[in-house]
Amino acid sequence: MRRPDARPLYVQVEAILNDRIVSGSWKSGQAIPAEPELAAELGVSAGTLRRALARLEQRHLIERRQGRGTYVAQQTSQQALGQFFRVRNLAGRPVDPETVITAVTTSPASEEEARRLRLAPGEEVHRIDRSRVFEGEPRIAERISLPAAFFPNLTLPLAPKQLGTEIYVHYRNAHGIIVVQAEENLSATAATEADAAILGCPVGTPLLLIERVTFDAAGRPVELRVSRLDTRAHRYAVEIA
Amino acid sequence: MRRPDARPLYVQVEAILNDRIVSGSWKSGQAIPAEPELAAELGVSAGTLRRALARLEQRHLIERRQGRGTYVAQQTSQQALGQFFRVRNLAGRPVDPETVITAVTTSPASEEEARRLRLAPGEEVHRIDRSRVFEGEPRIAERISLPAAFFPNLTLPLAPKQLGTEIYVHYRNAHGIIVVQAEENLSATAATEADAAILGCPVGTPLLLIERVTFDAAGRPVELRVSRLDTRAHRYAVEIA
Asked: Of A44, B21, B200, B239, which has the fewest beta carbons less than 10 angstroms from its beta carbon?
């Protein structure tokens, strides 16, 4: 016999609805059932359901549209950028990056990749090397590492602008991976020769090093991303409240 | 005749209660009146009051204590550090900084200070130069600029460890300034000779440059802080959700 679930009821309801979204049983962009109907189906009060929905909304998995109901959130490029891309120009305005993918390879995870992505020794990762261009110049050199088991048959175009959407939208649409959260560690580093070639800066230029681990809606680490940002004309913005 | 206030009622209630905290009419650590009493006094529904209280709680101005009621938040050093200090060691653990103040001066604001702090030309700022020591080494060199008009008679001890609390607690207790929010812009820079002398690193070492503007509970910019973090053994942590 299973032990009764000790979590608060609204957390259990959140998990059930989360599963429906992750599994694709509720599809991106679809309206979810009306609250009274859903509460009755799940056998919970309106208040419990509303608390669970509020948490899903906070996690950007559903969205309420004024007077029109509640929908499974569509992860658009704009939404992904707004949530995850913190780069601003010196006037404080968001920038609109283009992406140039230069290499996609697959091989066993390094020690660092395995640790960050919680992989067993020998498990494979895909590595995507790319640069991001905004306001006319390449400003970020980055490598994305993905557990190959979560991204079977990964295919990405190797030419500029052919991936017309943010890569998190691609994860969702092509691989069913819904990114909801990330942890970043920031530090400063000196541009290597490789950085200098990509970013057009002198070797040794101080760069902002951003090490990101991204988690999907099931709480699994699904991406390690190491970005090197040229901050001569840009900043990484943080709001603390 | 004043025009009716167009803001939602709960926002107006939030502003009224915010004023009571900022003005000191409700003091730090004091229990606030029970919800039914407060709702009756303000002439609003329990739901509206609760929504206003939830916003004040989110802003760390009040805190609910399980089964004991709601209190005006006391800004402790631990709370201030937890909210505003993002430095972690390489194991991902928070560090416990000591502060060494090396100079406190007062003079007219620079152009940058005036712009960031919204001061008129010629207005004075206090400048606090200090370093922060953790895990045995000075790791941050920073300058804090404060509008002198908000901080009359600023006196700070010029010796290590004599300011036993975080400076935001000092702002509140000695100057009635309640810090609730900050915007930070991060970039990378090379250590100058002055940085190298403070941080014990070679000139040219890449440092994480953190430019912070801090806002008080009334929404005014009350602090400009420029910090230079040695990231050889530490990181600046960001959570994105």
From this structure: B239
